[in-house]
Amino acid sequence: MVDGRGRRYPSDTTDAQWAAIDPLLPDPAWLAGKGGRREVHCRRAIVDAIFYVVDNGIKWRALPGDFPPWSTVYNYFAAWEAAGVTQDVLDALRDRVRLAEGRVAAPSAAIIDSQSVKAAETVGRSSRGFDAGNYAGSSVMPGRTHLSWRKGGPARDNYRFSRKAMRLSGGR
Questions:
Q1: Are residues 77 and 119 in the same domain?
Q2: 162 — phi, psi (to 5°)?
């Protein structure tokens, strides 16, 4: 049960998934003796709300009413992101998946999605080519690269990846 609301959405964590994620999150400041007040909302509900936003691609303000207020959820996410907590969680889950698959924990290579990288201005226009199906638009900076562990948007991929990690650990 999550903050009295139960599991309502496919993006909500199971008990097994939460057991894997909870130890990876930092202790609240008041619990670590750094002052502050007790948390009003269950951290599992906060994580479930973040998963809901990522899974459904909605705006923070469009969170359903049975989650904590959008501003609270966003503030937790922003603080965890600024402190590098989200990356640490994803790294730990990635390592768990790779070890379960019999691979080395740390990947030895990354993929550069060259379809979204424009050619440098120093390359002759006649040799650059143009693929209208992969046009990145004028807002993409020439020469800018995007690193991702798999094809697609990084936030959605990280969400899917964490769901896979949770299934390997005995979750849904």
A1: no
A2: -65, -35
Of 134 and 47, the structure prediction assigns the larger pLDDT to: 47
Q: Which residue type does 17 have?
A: Q
Give SS3 for 129.
coil
- By three-state DSSP, how is residue 172 classified? coil
Give me the amino acid identity at 9. Answer: Y
pLDDT in tens, 157-171: 566 666 666 665 555
Which structural domain range is residue 131 located in?
A: 111-148
Q: How far is CA 70 from CA 44, 50, 63, 85, 170, in A?
A: 14, 9, 6, 19, 30
- Alpha-helical runs (H) found in the chain: 15-21, 43-56, 70-82, 85-100, 125-128, 154-168
Rounded to 10 degrees, the C-alpha dihedral 30/32/34/36 comes to: -10
- Do 19 and 98 fall into the same domain? yes
Is pLDDT at 46 greater than 60 in this prediction?
yes
pLDDT score recorded for residue 36 = 78
| Other C-beta atoms lying within 10 Å of the C-beta of residue 4 | 8
